[in-house]
Specification:
The complex is a heterodimer of chains A (242) and B (420). Chain A is an alpha/beta fold. In chain A, 29% of the residues lie in helices and 29% in strands. Chain A has a single domain (5-241), classed as Class I glutamine amidotransferase (GATase) domain (Rossmann fold). Chain A has seven helices and 14 strands. Chain B has two domains: 8-286, Mur-like, catalytic domain (UDP-N-acetylmuramoyl-L-alanine:D-glutamate ligase, 3-Layer(aba) Sandwich), CATH 3.40.1190; 298-417, Mur ligase, C-terminal domain (Protein-Tyrosine Phosphatase, Chain A), CATH 3.90.190. Chain B has helices spanning 8-12, 16-34, 41-51, 55-60, 74-85, 101-109, 126-133, 154-165, 179-185, 259-273, 279-286, 314-321, 368-378, 388-394, 406-417; strands spanning 64-69, 91-93, 116-120, 137-140, 171-175, 190-195, 235-238, 241-243, 249-251, 298-301, 304-310, 331-334, 361-364, 382-384, 400-404. In chain B, helix 2 (16-34) packs antiparallel against helix 3 (41-51). The chains are: A alpha/beta (242), B alpha/beta (420). The A-B interface holds A 13-15, 17-23, 26-27, 30, 45-47, 63, 65-66, 69, 131-132, 150, 152, 195-197, 200, 226-227, 229-230, 233 and B 145, 148-150, 153-156, 202, 205-206, 211, 213, 343-350, 369-370, 372-374, 376-379.
C-alpha cells in the first residue's frame, strides 16, 4: 500500500457477481475500516479499464457465458497483469478462479484461454455438480483456521507445479480432481471454489488480504462474535451431513 | 375463487381414464388433507398426472387460459387478474400458489362453470404448461436471481422462455422495463409491452442478446453493441396511474402496499384488456384484494400489530424495504434455507440491508446467524431472538414489520396463528 487509503478493486460486478460475491467486497471493506484504515473502493464494469494501482483485487463467480465474456475482456486488458507484477493481491472465486488459470471450458463447450496468473487449468466435471456446504483445512503457511463455504460448480480445476492448494477438503468437492484439494495460490494470487461468501464465513481470509496489502504480520483485534457463531454452525452442519 | 367442485361440465369432456385420474387425484387430496399435510392440491394433482400424463391438456380444454410467471409477484398478480377477469365471466385459479404442473392440474380439475383459467406458473415449468394448456394470454412480469443452488441461472431461464414461447399463439404481456423479460418475449408473434418498472437491476447489466454492457439512461435501456433496446410500451405505470394505450390515465387504488403491486396492477390491466375488460372496471375490482395467501396481512401478537411480508430474493427484499414504515419502526427478519428456499444463503449479500439502519431489528429463523453477520457488516443494530413472540416482547413501540423468506414466512404464519 503506497498511500493513505487501501485501494479495493472489484472486477466486473456486471458479469461476475452472481452468488453474493458482493459480500466479499463488503467484508474486506468493513474489516479494513474497523482497523482505522481508509478504503477507496472501485467497482470496475466490464466496459471499463482495470486500474493498475489497486492493493486488493476481488473477482467473483458467474454464469458460463458471462464468464467467457469476462475472460475475453480481461485478456485484452493489461491492467490486472501489471497490478500483479507490482505485487497487488488478487482473490478470485469460482468462475473468476477459473479465469485466472491457463484455460477453462466456456458456455459453448470450448477450451478458452484464461489469464495465466495461476498455474491451473479447468475442465468440466463428468459427475454430479458440486452443490452444498464445504469444509477444508487451509495450507498451514497461511495461518488460517478451518475454511467453511458453499460450493456450486461443475468445473474441475487441475493444479500445476507453480501453485499450492489453498486447502485440503474434509467435506465437499473442492477442485474435484479426486486428490482432495481446494483452490490454489501462489504469492499474492488466490483462487477458490468457496462461496458463502467466503469472507463472511472466514473473516480471517479478509484479514489476511489486508495484512498482505499493508505488509504487516498482525492487525488490531476485531469483534468476531457473530462470524464465529456462524462458522461453528456451518462447520457442524456440513460434518453432520457428510 | 374456484367454482363448485365435481361439476358435470368438466367431467363430461373427459374420457374414462381422465375421469378416473381426476377421481383418484381427489381421493389422494382428501387423504392428504385428512393427514394434515396442507391443502392437498399438490399431492392430488401428482396422483392424477401419474395416471394420465395428458390430463393437464384435457382439464384446460374449454377454458380461456391465462398464465402468469415471474420471479416475484406471480401469486399476487394471479389473484389480481382472477379478480378483474370475473367482470367477464367465472374464473378458476390456483389461488394457493401451487404453481407446478401437479398443483395446476389439481386446481383446473375443479373448474366447474368457469370460463377463465388464471394460472400461476413456476418459471421453470412455463414452457411445459404453455404447451399443454393452449393459453390465450401469458403474462411475464420480471426475472431476477432466485434460489441459485437449484433453479437454472437467470439468463438461461430467459433463454429457455424465449425458445419455448417462440411459436405460441397466445398474446404475451411482457414487462418492457426488464431486459431479460423483453429478450424472452421479443420472439413472440403478439406482444403487449408494459412499462411496469424494474427496481432491482443487478441481473440486467449484461445484454441478453450479445453480452454487451447495457446502458440505462433514465427509463430507457439499450445495448450499444448490438442495438437491442427497450421496446415502445403500450401500457405504462406512471406514479399511481395506469396509462392505457390511448394515453388515458386510470388511478390505482389498492389495499395492497408498495410499488411492486402498482406494477402488478398495471400488468393486470393490460392482461384483462385482452378479454375486453375495461381498465377502470379492472382497477375497481382489484381494490377488493387484501392479503394474498397471508402476504401483507396484519395480525395481533400479544396485543401488538405485526405485518407479515414475504421476500424471497434480492429483488423482493428491495421492493419490501421500500414499503415498510419509516425508522424507527421495529423490523423482524426471518430466514430459512430449506430446499424450497434454496439452501445457499449467499443471496443475503445481494440485499441492501444497509437500508435498515435506524430501525431496531430482530433476527430469527433457521439461518439467523447468516443474517447476524450480514447485519453486522451492514452496520445495522440487531438482536437475535428465537421466536416472533420474543421479538414482539422486546420490540419498541410501533407496528412491527416482519419480513421472511418462503418457508420462514409459512412458519411465521403458523406461529402467529397459534399464540403460545
Amino acid at each position: 500500500m503506497t498511500d493513505s487509503a487501501l485501494r479495493l478493486i472489484w472486477i466486473y460486478p456486471d458479469l461476475l457477481s452472481t452468488y453474493g460475491d458482493r459480500g466479499n467486497v463488503l467484508v474486506v471493506e468493513r474489516r479494513a475500516r474497523q482497523r482505522g484504515l481508509q478504503v477507496e473502493r472501485v467497482d470496475v464494469r466490464s466496459d471499463q479499464p482495470v486500474p493498475t494501482s489497486g492493493d486488493i483485487y476481488l473477482i467473483g463467480g458467474g454464469e458460463d457465458r458471462p464468464q467467457r465474456l469476462a475472460g475475453e475482456r480481461l485478456r485484452q486488458d493489461p491492467g490486472l497483469g501489471r497490478a500483479v507484477e507490482n505485487g497487488a493481491i488478487v482473490f478470485a472465486v469460482c468462475a473468476g478462479y477459473q479465469i485466472l488459470g491457463h484455460e477453462f471450458i466456456d458456455d459453448r463447450g470450448e477450451r478458452t484461454a484464461g489469464l495465466g496468473l495461476l498455474d491451473v487449468w479447468s475442465t468440466r466435471g463428468e459427475g454430479k455438480r458440486n452443490v452444498g456446504d464445504i469444509v477444508a483445512e487451509p495450507d498451514p503457511r497461511l495461518g488460517l483456521p478451518t475454511l467453511t463455504g458453499f460450493e456450486n460448480h461443475q468445473g474441475v480445476t487441475h493444479l500445476g507445479q507453480g501453485v499450492s492448494p489453498l486447502a485440503q477438503v474434509t467435506v465437499g468437492g473442492g477442485n474435484g480432481t479426486g486428490e482432495g484439494t481446494e483452490g490454489a495460490w501462489r504469492d499474492t494470487v488466490f483462487g477458490t471454489y468457496l462461496h458463502g461468501p467466503i469472507m463472511a464465513r472466514n473473516p480471517l481470509v479478509a484479514d489476511l488480504l489486508i495484512k498482505l496489502a499493508l505488509d504487516v504480520s498482525a492487525l488490531p483485534p476485531a469483534d468476531n462474535t457473530w462470524y464465529d457463531a456462524l462458522r461453528a454452525e456451518r462447520i457442524a452442519a456440513a460434518q453432520a451431513t457428510s | 375463487m374456484s367454482a363448485h367442485p365435481d361439476s358435470a361440465a368438466t367431467s363430461a369432456s373427459l374420457n374414462a381414464r381422465a375421469k378416473l385420474a381426476v377421481t383418484a387425484g381427489k381421493a389422494a387430496a382428501a387423504v392428504s388433507r385428512a393427514a394434515g399435510r396442507g391443502s392437498g392440491s399438490v399431492i392430488g394433482g401428482r396422483v392424477a398426472l401419474k395416471l394420465d400424463p395428458d390430463l393437464l391438456r384435457r382439464v384446460s380444454e374449454g377454458l380461456d387460459v391465462v398464465l402468469v410467471s415471474a420471479t416475484n409477484g406471480k401469486t399476487t398478480t394471479t389473484r389480481l387478474i382472477a379478480e378483474a377477469l370475473k367482470a367477464a365471466g367465472p374464473v378458476v385459479s390456483n389461488a394457493l400458489g401451487a404453481n407446478m404442473p401437479a398443483g395446476i392440474t389439481s386446481a383446473l380439475a375443479d373448474s366447474g362453470e368457469a370460463r377463465f383459467g388464471v394460472i400461476e406458473v413456476d418459471e421453470k415449468y412455463l414452457n411445459m404448461v404453455a404447451r399443454d394448456t393452449n393459453p390465450k394470454a401469458i403474462a411475464l412480469l420480471n426475472l431476477s436471481r432466485d434460489q441459485l443452488d437449484r433453479s437454472s441461472e437467470t439468463r438461461m431461464l430467459a433463454e429457455k422462455w424465449r425458445e419455448g414461447l417462440a411459436g405460441t399463439e397466445a398474446v404475451v404481456i411482457a414487462n418492457a422495463d426488464d431486459p431479460l423479460v423483453t429478450w424472452a418475449a421479443s420472439s413472440c408473434k403478439k406482444v403487449i409491452w408494459v412499462a411496469a418498472g424494474q427496481a432491482y437491476k443487478e441481473d440486467a447489466w449484461s445484454c441478453p442478446s450479445c453480452g454487451g454492457v447495457m446502458q440505462r439512461p433514465d427509463e430507457e435501456w439499450f445495448c450499444p453493441s448490438c442495438g437491442f433496446r427497450r421496446p415502445q410500451p403500450h401500457w405504462a405505470l406512471q406514479g399511481e396511474f395506469v396509462v392505457d394505450p390511448q394515453g388515458n390515465p386510470w388511478p390505482i387504488r389498492l389495499q395492497l402496499p408498495g410499488r411492486a403491486n402498482l406494477s402488478n396492477a398495471t400488468s393486470t390491466a393490460a392482461v384483462v384488456s385482452v378479454f375486453g375488460v375495461h381498465p377502470q372496471i379492472a382497477l375497481q375490482r382489484m381494490e377488493s384484494v387484501q392479503a394474498v395467501a397471508g402476504r401483507y396481512e396484519s395480525v395481533l401478537v400479544n396485543g401488538r400489530e405485526v405485518r407479515l411480508l414475504l421476500a424471497k430474493n434480492p429483488a423482493g427484499w428491495l421492493e419490501t424495504f421500500s414499503l415498510i414504515d419509516p425508522a424507527p419502526s421495529p423490523v423482524v427478519l426471518s430466514v430459512n434455507a430449506l430446499s424450497a428456499d434454496g439452501t445457499d444463503t449467499s443471496w443475503l449479500w445481494d440485499v441492501d440491508y444497509e437500508r435498515l439502519v435506524g430501525h431496531p431489528v430482530f433476527v430469527m429463523g433457521q439461518r439467523k446467524l447468516d443474517l447476524a453477520v450480514r447485519l453486522e457488516v451492514a452496520g445495522v443494530q440487531f438482536q437475535v431472538v428465537d421466536s416472533i413472540q420474543q421479538a414482539v416482547a422486546m420490540a419498541p413501540q410501533g407496528r412491527i414489520e416482519a419480513i421472511a423468506n418462503y418457508t420462514a414466512f409459512q412458519q411465521l404464519r403458523r406461529d402467529v396463528a397459534t399464540p403460545n
